[in-house]
Write a structure and sequence with these properties.
Elements: H1 2-16, H2 18-53, E1 58-62, H3 65-70, H4 81-93, E2 97-103, H5 105-116, E3 133-138, H6 144-151, E4 157-162, H7 163-206, H8 208-216, H9 221-256, H10 261-264, H11 273-302
Antiparallel strand pairs: 1-3, 1-4, 2-3
Helix pairs in contact: 1-9, 2-7, 2-9, 2-11, 7-9, 7-11, 9-11
Length: 305
Amino acid sequence: MRAQFVLSEIGVGLRRNLTMTFAVVVSVALSLALFGGSLLMSDQVSKMKGYWYDKVNVSIFLCNKSDAENDPNCAKGAVTEDQKKAILADLKKMQVVQTVTYESQDEAYKHYKEQFGDSPLAGSLTPDQMQESYRIKLKDPEQYKVIASAFNGRDGVQSVQDQKGILDNLFGLLNGMNWAARAVMAMMLVVALMLIVNTVRVSAFSRRRETGIMRLVGASGFYIQAPFIMEAAVAGLIGGTVACGFLVTARYFIIDHGLDLAHKLTLINFIGWDAVLTKLPLILATSLLMPALAAFFALRKYLKV
């Protein structure tokens, strides 16, 4: 009988404050969708880092005839065969080096044509204008400076470039976007909590006669508070369910179908469904507990029992 009464009171409260309940559902849904999205973005960045950092190379570009005329780093002329052999021998002796791959001018020209064949500049380039290079895979990508300090300024070396630096800029941008999403999420959570507190306050005020009668007949404090707490929890849970729907729909239509980014952006290793599904219980638990706790503390102030 008591459980039936509490459930009936929850339904009455939700219907009585329908507009504010709807506002709570929407704000909770948006804030938790951003919360889940930021968690997934962190997973995506981590997965991309693991995928790309494992593939980055350090490139030692060697001087060619054109560089000898225009680049001060190649003032002593184009790289010689003896210099190339000496560079390769030193690379193989270094503990931080995992593998070394030589790329000739013809190979560099072929790769350039494959990647930038539609560029107007591609038609004016010839193989002898391309640079020979050594592509080094490091055991630890963080050890780039060891290679740079050993070969920068060496005879025959035009420059030492680390691909990780380019990736760091990309991941820095993605992390910045993620923190911006978290800031918006935090503001939305504050708005949701304020709406929950206000909704509970209005609900308690509108039913002050009923709660007064319940107090007079000896109802416990928890029994009086339970309908209000559960109203907030139910509204939050509906919002959390909507947020989960947003995330699942976004993953399905943006990555798998619709925009189909998984097939259009093959260079990006997207997170799988397992990453999405593992976040849903956390979102649902948050959507249930957050409004319930907010209502509990609000009732201590607005509903003296």
